[in-house]
């Protein structure tokens, strides 16, 4: 077991001396972490040496965010969710609608179980996208991993992805090799991940050694992409212009399962357990790790007094078109499922398909000057 | 420190080549020195408090270069870093400090009476004068590595020690977390306070953690003597005032610093110092005196002169923008200060600034009149 001698060194200070000042904070971690929990956990370390201070650093450094209720903690390896369960279980419960330590999570990547989804109006639904994350067993996670580990993940990923063919035939582009121009284009196309400027990520150590070991793989059609070593080991994305979410989800499921088979063959399966589903860096992404969403024009609905309530009832969330901590531009919103844990992939994409269909109908009504009061949905 | 070096032993299962950073696009002191072979020899080591080679170099990996300054690219996490990682740090120190050798001895001289002149820099040109240094408190890890408990202990000690200053040095401590945004911005604009940590040079080495916990500023009632607590070093001690009376600034600096050192010693926490490296600070560039003495001076003509850089070099001075170390100059006003830190005493360095700035102002006046400056070009100091 790796020794974390600085953590031992810190033990000479009392818990009161080390406990962070969270008086100005508003994130999930700050709401849950008491001095008692801190005292119980501060002497512990995962086998790879991740400590409670490592888990919470990002939440200490980022008191709150104007648009989103941040989680304020990360995992450094799979074992974090066990070693620090006294802190993480309540956070998971808060974040994931009351999910209990005894609950079981259901995985369903059979795209045939999705009903409809091929007819969202492309005059409103500009693009459709499904993403998830995967962690590779045997490596620590992005807040903690060394360059050797990160490169090991990259190498495995390149090998695995190189063996895909047909509609999944593609190419890997390491970030280190890209020109600034190539990189900017991929970002503008919504294909590439941000250069790490968000303090939510940088404070958790995820930007170390950038751009070493990072890259993007995509198929020739640019409809299926894999990000390597950003916030998770892998992010898998299926996307295309227009409203055919059914096709996007089919490709997502098929591609993802092919990739998983290849990693398993190389003796590096994905981190998963029956309680938390897929294990990812941020507790908010546990379960399916799935965000299925659309860019949709809702200029009228988005200014309607009931917009937020409708989203809540449909179990959807809105974001700006630049991603998780951005604002919307020109009445175009990124609408996606709010849940990750406690419902399956199929169930979550179904919510998006049904919910977006309804919202587009509402938008059309409002355009005509009609009321939408009769269409307000029940809580899903 | 949360940045992946809490598992140094686990990393050893990867070969050195697999862990060695990609420094091909890098241009900082660390990148020029760290070879794969050196990395291999040092990677398994750690200081007693657990600081590792990867901790030392992380900032230099994450920041390949800087448009204005040749960065050091490494930091110390504790006093022992300079010993445990001497194979890397000695050459970095040598490169940065003009050939300073591992066997050299550093001279400390904080006797203000030894400074000649310095009370007559022309205030029409020299807008303000300032001397700063840093001090590390023995027994605590340094800002890249210290825990909240350690940082707060440094703060508590500092508050106690500074509270006992009196007379012209009577003052008050302002914890950063109690300051309003308006108070804080005012102090920054007055050049009294340190930046909110946005520079990636500092953030990448972990110095921004837990901000603003246990950070603060103490200053005397006149705002001419300031102490920063827990920024890039445990303490930064600053003497400053408007105009060109560097002699008075340095007098106050020496008096105040000596008093503070006495107060800390009385509390059984001496400053980190040794006869080879002088005062031990977080950044290897600040070893020795840790002293930067400088002025904000109007040199609109001189700064556009083809010989400006050469003159600065010969005078052993450096220029910065008026916002601090990695900023640009605004309106022809430059921050001119001593380039050296190690291998010269405090008095010697301030003397260079006093003599050098006097000359630069003379040159500026000549250029204003359309005269040449060729006859007054200095020799290499």
Automatic annotation (TrEMBL), chain A:
<feature type="binding site">
    <location>
        <begin position="319"/>
        <end position="324"/>
    </location>
    <ligand>
        <name>ATP</name>
    </ligand>
</feature>
<dbReference type="Pfam" id="PF00217">
    <property type="entry name" value="ATP-gua_Ptrans"/>
</dbReference>
<dbReference type="Pfam" id="PF02807">
    <property type="entry name" value="ATP-gua_PtransN"/>
</dbReference>
<dbReference type="InterPro" id="IPR036802">
    <property type="entry name" value="ATP-guanido_PTrfase_N_sf"/>
</dbReference>
<protein>
    <recommendedName>
        <fullName>creatine kinase</fullName>
        <ecNumber>2.7.3.2</ecNumber>
    </recommendedName>
</protein>
<dbReference type="InterPro" id="IPR022415">
    <property type="entry name" value="ATP-guanido_PTrfase_AS"/>
</dbReference>
<dbReference type="InterPro" id="IPR000749">
    <property type="entry name" value="ATP-guanido_PTrfase"/>
</dbReference>
<keyword id="KW-0067">ATP-binding</keyword>
<keyword id="KW-0808">Transferase</keyword>
<dbReference type="InterPro" id="IPR022413">
    <property type="entry name" value="ATP-guanido_PTrfase_N"/>
</dbReference>
<feature type="domain" description="Phosphagen kinase C-terminal">
    <location>
        <begin position="124"/>
        <end position="366"/>
    </location>
</feature>
<keyword id="KW-0547">Nucleotide-binding</keyword>
<comment type="similarity">
    <text>Belongs to the ATP:guanido phosphotransferase family.</text>
</comment>
<dbReference type="GO" id="GO:0004111">
    <property type="term" value="F:creatine kinase activity"/>
</dbReference>
<feature type="binding site">
    <location>
        <begin position="291"/>
        <end position="295"/>
    </location>
    <ligand>
        <name>ATP</name>
    </ligand>
</feature>
<feature type="binding site">
    <location>
        <begin position="127"/>
        <end position="131"/>
    </location>
    <ligand>
        <name>ATP</name>
    </ligand>
</feature>
<dbReference type="InterPro" id="IPR014746">
    <property type="entry name" value="Gln_synth/guanido_kin_cat_dom"/>
</dbReference>
<dbReference type="GO" id="GO:0046314">
    <property type="term" value="P:phosphocreatine biosynthetic process"/>
</dbReference>
<feature type="binding site">
    <location>
        <position position="235"/>
    </location>
    <ligand>
        <name>ATP</name>
    </ligand>
</feature>
<feature type="binding site">
    <location>
        <position position="190"/>
    </location>
    <ligand>
        <name>ATP</name>
    </ligand>
</feature>
<dbReference type="GO" id="GO:0005524">
    <property type="term" value="F:ATP binding"/>
</dbReference>
<dbReference type="InterPro" id="IPR022414">
    <property type="entry name" value="ATP-guanido_PTrfase_cat"/>
</dbReference>
From TrEMBL, chain B:
<feature type="domain" description="Phosphagen kinase C-terminal">
    <location>
        <begin position="125"/>
        <end position="367"/>
    </location>
</feature>
<feature type="binding site">
    <location>
        <position position="191"/>
    </location>
    <ligand>
        <name>ATP</name>
    </ligand>
</feature>
<keyword id="KW-0067">ATP-binding</keyword>
<dbReference type="InterPro" id="IPR000749">
    <property type="entry name" value="ATP-guanido_PTrfase"/>
</dbReference>
<dbReference type="GO" id="GO:0046314">
    <property type="term" value="P:phosphocreatine biosynthetic process"/>
</dbReference>
<dbReference type="Pfam" id="PF02807">
    <property type="entry name" value="ATP-gua_PtransN"/>
</dbReference>
<dbReference type="GO" id="GO:0005615">
    <property type="term" value="C:extracellular space"/>
</dbReference>
<dbReference type="InterPro" id="IPR022414">
    <property type="entry name" value="ATP-guanido_PTrfase_cat"/>
</dbReference>
<feature type="binding site">
    <location>
        <begin position="292"/>
        <end position="296"/>
    </location>
    <ligand>
        <name>ATP</name>
    </ligand>
</feature>
<dbReference type="GO" id="GO:0005524">
    <property type="term" value="F:ATP binding"/>
</dbReference>
<feature type="binding site">
    <location>
        <position position="236"/>
    </location>
    <ligand>
        <name>ATP</name>
    </ligand>
</feature>
<dbReference type="InterPro" id="IPR022413">
    <property type="entry name" value="ATP-guanido_PTrfase_N"/>
</dbReference>
<feature type="domain" description="Phosphagen kinase N-terminal">
    <location>
        <begin position="11"/>
        <end position="98"/>
    </location>
</feature>
<keyword id="KW-0418">Kinase</keyword>
<dbReference type="Pfam" id="PF00217">
    <property type="entry name" value="ATP-gua_Ptrans"/>
</dbReference>
<comment type="similarity">
    <text>Belongs to the ATP:guanido phosphotransferase family.</text>
</comment>
<dbReference type="GO" id="GO:0004111">
    <property type="term" value="F:creatine kinase activity"/>
</dbReference>
<feature type="binding site">
    <location>
        <begin position="128"/>
        <end position="132"/>
    </location>
    <ligand>
        <name>ATP</name>
    </ligand>
</feature>
<feature type="binding site">
    <location>
        <begin position="320"/>
        <end position="325"/>
    </location>
    <ligand>
        <name>ATP</name>
    </ligand>
</feature>
<keyword id="KW-0808">Transferase</keyword>
<protein>
    <recommendedName>
        <fullName>creatine kinase</fullName>
        <ecNumber>2.7.3.2</ecNumber>
    </recommendedName>
</protein>
<keyword id="KW-0547">Nucleotide-binding</keyword>
